[in-house]
Specification:
alpha+beta
Length: 191
């Protein structure tokens, strides 16, 4: 049974997902519509420490694994493998409908997935925003994104990272829907 997917569409309000609860709800709603709603779905997102509220690490929100896509392909057997040599590629990072998500070279490119996370799945330190103000801003800030297809502008680790490629940026302050689209994203999530 499906235990991993990339959202086929974003919430549509840039980095303002309505916090972690709003993001989880998006995962649950899309899973439900695809007939996979019989389990608790969580978005792979971190939040940063803010005004005394401790950070939340994406790797701690997603259960123990294994994770498989809608075709039954195992992406990773456990949290260590997910953050090590996992099976995530453009061909395996399917939507809840079992569809391939557009990547680099496709029009439009939608390969940036919101994670707010470091490569090991932990949150960034407080200070520099990497979570669009903990998923509540659609103007100022930045969200760390990963590349679904593991391809970027350079042949380096960051460009090939599924969960920590580069921060969002753009004319509206970094967190608007237009900003997310401008660097090859659409506000998509890993569930």
């Amino acid at each position: 049974a499906t235990s991993f997917f990339v959202t086929s569409n974003g919430i549509g309000n840039g980095g303002n997902l309505g916090g972690l609860a709003g993001a989880d709800n998006q995962c649950q709603t899309l899973a439900q519509a695809a007939g996979a709603g019989g389990k608790t779905w969580r978005a792979y997102l971190s939040t940063q420490e803010a005004s005394g509220t401790p950070a939340v690490h994406a790797r701690d929100r997603i259960g123990k694994g294994p994770w498989q896509n809608s075709k039954g392909t195992v992406i990773a057997k456990d949290v260590a493998e997910l953050h090590g040599s996992n099976g995530l590629t453009k061909q395996t990072a399917l939507s809840e409908k079992g569809e391939i998500i557009n990547g680099r070279g496709d029009t439009p490119n939608r390969h940036d997935v919101l994670t707010g996370s470091q490569p090991d799945g932990t949150a960034f330190a407080a200070g520099e925003d990497r979570t669009c103000k903990n998923w509540t801003s659609s103007t100022q800030g930045a969200a760390m994104v990963g590349h679904i297809d593991r391809i970027g502008l350079r042949d380096d680790e960051a460009s090939k990272s599924w969960n920590s490629s580069h921060p969002s940026r753009g004319n509206d302050g970094g967190c608007s829907q237009a900003d997310l689209k401008s660097t090859g994203g659409d506000g998509l999530l890993y569930c």
